[in-house]
Design brief:
Structural class: alpha+beta
Radius of gyration: 23 Å
Helix content: 10-25%
Largest sheet: 5 strands, antiparallel
Number of strands: 10
Shape: globular
Length: 274
């Protein structure tokens, strides 16, 4: 029996963010005109509110860090994101103060809500989403739009095809979670230089088979992680092997950054035979 224990490998993660506010026009340096002759300014524009079911043609870069608002496209056209939930941000604190739309509290609300609602939209258990290339991304108004009254957050579903590439989505993504193209595979063993996480529809040599929860408030030591993951990963490898006495597996554990961001599980990987 042969065992391969792999150190932590980076898990590709997508996250939404606040669209940057447009630059303000330069102020005039001349003396102000009398109040009676000053032209009235138009009221601030909060912009449109997103709607569930909208589709967007996002690039990978836009999905990771939005650099500007993207208008919806017809879902019959090529698109890479679909809005599955829209909510309202809590921008007023219990003390009656107004928090910024790009504050940690506001972004945390969007992140946790969108992540929690994704499995139900896909029609799978939360644990099963871990082994797919599907990700939730979220967006909020720019600070300027928020000051004008916009208080929405938008949850989009995207699917990662490979490094810096998104999969085209079907017209309807509700109940789409068991599609084979979404399964998580890799080009090489986790922890090696050739490792790239890809959809199982692409060329691959390893497949993610299970996830193992890691208890505790702090990231466990490597020996403790290995001891907890060994039984599950070993069973997966034995089941996938042609020879029950000769099999290999790999364990991928979260990095410190991933642990702090909420990933409290490791991933079992086995090589693809044939």
């Amino acid at each position: 029996m042969r065992r391969l224990l792999v150190a932590a490998a980076a898990v590709l993660a997508l996250s939404g963010c606040t669209s940057p506010a447009p630059a303000d026009d330069a102020g005039s340096t001349s003396s102000p005109a009398p109040a009676a002759s000053a032209p009235s300014e138009p009221p601030p524009d909060p912009g449109p509110t997103p709607e569930v079911g909208e589709c967007h043609a996002l690039t990978f870069r836009q999905a990771v860090a939005v650099v500007g608002r993207t208008a919806p496209v017809a879902c019959g056209r090529r698109h890479t994101a679909q809005t599955y939930s829209v909510g309202r941000l809590r921008l007023t604190t219990p003390a009656g103060r107004t928090r910024s739309v790009d504050s940690e509290a506001a972004q945390r609300q969007a992140r946790t809500t969108c992540t929690a609602r994704l499995p139900r939209h896909l029609g799978v258990a939360p644990r099963d989403v871990r082994l797919t290339m599907v990700r939730a991304v979220w967006f909020t108004p720019s600070p300027a739009r928020a000051q004008a009254g916009a208080d929405w957050f938008r949850c989009d579903v995207v699917a990662v095809a490979g490094p810096r590439e998104l999969l085209p989505l079907p017209r309807r993504t509700k109940g789409w979670g068991d599609a084979p193209v979404l399964e998580m595979c890799a080009t090489a063993a986790p922890g090696t230089r050739a490792f790239r996480r890809v959809s199982c529809g692409a060329r691959h040599t390893w497949r993610a088979t299970s996830t193992v929860d890691l208890p505790g408030r702090r990231l466990p030591r490597p020996a403790a992680v290995a001891a907890r993951m060994d039984p599950t990963c070993r069973a997966d490898a034995r089941s996938a092997a042609t020879d029950p006495l000769d099999f290999t597996w790999s364990q991928e554990v979260p990095t410190r950054e991933q642990w702090d961001a909420g990933q409290r599980y490791g991933i079992c990987w086995v090589p693809v035979r044939g």
